[in-house]
Amino acid sequence: MQPALLWKRQDDNAVLCQLCSHFCHIEPDERGKCGVRVNKDGDLFTLVADRVAAANLDPIEKKPLYHFYPGTTSFSVGTMGCNLACSFCQNYSLSFPPKQGQEVRGERFAPEQIVEAAKRYGAHSIAYTYSEPTIFFELVLPTAKLAHERGLKNVLVSNGFMSPQCLDELGPHIDAANIDLKGFTDDFYQQYCGAKLTPVKNNLKRIAKSDWWLEVTTLVIPGANDNPAELTRLAEFIAGNLGLEVPWHISRFHPTYKLMDRDSTPTKTLEMAYDIGKKAGLYYVYVGNVPGHPGNNTYCPGCNAVAIRREGFQVVKADLSKCSECGRPVHGVAMNALEDRYAG
Ligand code: SF4
To answer: What does the record list as coiled-coil region(s) (predicted)?
Structure first.
């Protein structure tokens, strides 16, 4: 247990946590909604500042980030707990136990060890991911600072429900983010995630204006957020407020955790969402979790030629810096970093 950041003491030894947009009021000996921040005698502590519950070397495409140093690897770390309560959580064995008062599992890792491991594995970046990185902010911040000093990039894979204060603090230390936009109604966020839509939209707008490279992911769930009108509003929000060049990843739902009462998303629903994204004017829309689907490739926004062909998370052919057919640049960061590897 280590001292937490971003909180204020209230009357009667209660505390106000300011790390995420729940702004939990936490009484002594209670935990916040995330299950990993606890009030002890009027001070707030975190249970996860030195715990890593999952670590892997992943292709950056798996985050997914398709337009940020494509073809590189990212040392991906996560801990336990989450500030949201999604009934369709794909990492529920990590995210939910602390919320139920259970022990936080994981190995003790200091920022120095995470950065060293990333360097040892030849990773280009460190990804803060798996459960929600907001809630292990006290580990993310010093690790990200050290990673930059050692020449590594930092990547956040987040639900976007952090507080404005948290986003301020993370700002200079993160290089790219994939942020979930899980639906586009307050009802959906409330009913399926125990959260609110507005803070996510506000954070997305701020991130789009920042120096971070931004990509957005929506898991399309049958009967929950697959209404064409809702998807249209969501795609138009990205196009109008974040930018036409912001990639939108449409991902297939599979029954999991508490949402076992429906089938996986039909491919035709994902293709309908793809068409909605393109009609909204988005340059880069992707169909995810459907092996071999042509919607996993990058198409030139100018002439629609295949600019980057992928098999799963592997780049197999790329005109990374510009389309070989019409010469139009493909948006992104260091798209030509590995051009030699994929030439031809
Ligand atoms: S991080 Fe969010 S969910 Fe956790 S205690 Fe703070 S305000 Fe509550």
So the answer is: none
Residues 267 and 305 both lie in one domain = no
**Ligand 1, CB cutoff 6 Å, lining residues:** 17, 19-20, 22-24, 32-34, 37, 83, 135
CA nearest to 72, candidates 152, 140, 170, 159: 152
Between the CA of 125 and the centroid of ligand 1 the distance, in Å, is 27
Burial degree of 29 (CB within 10 A; 0-12, 13-18, 19+): exposed
- The boundaries of the domain holding residue 232 are 51-297
Q: Are residues 278 and 132 in the same domain?
A: yes
Residues 82 and 118 in one domain: yes
Centre of ligand 1 to C-alpha 57, Å, is: 28
Q: Residue range 91-111: average pLDDT?
A: 91
Residue 319, pLDDT > 70, answer no
Average pLDDT, integer, range 114-123: 97
Same domain, residue pair 25 and 139: no
Ligand 1 atom closest to Cα of 26?
Answer: 5
Q: What is the dihedral of CA 217, 222, 223, 224, to 10 degrees?
A: -20
Domain match, 154 and 193 both: yes
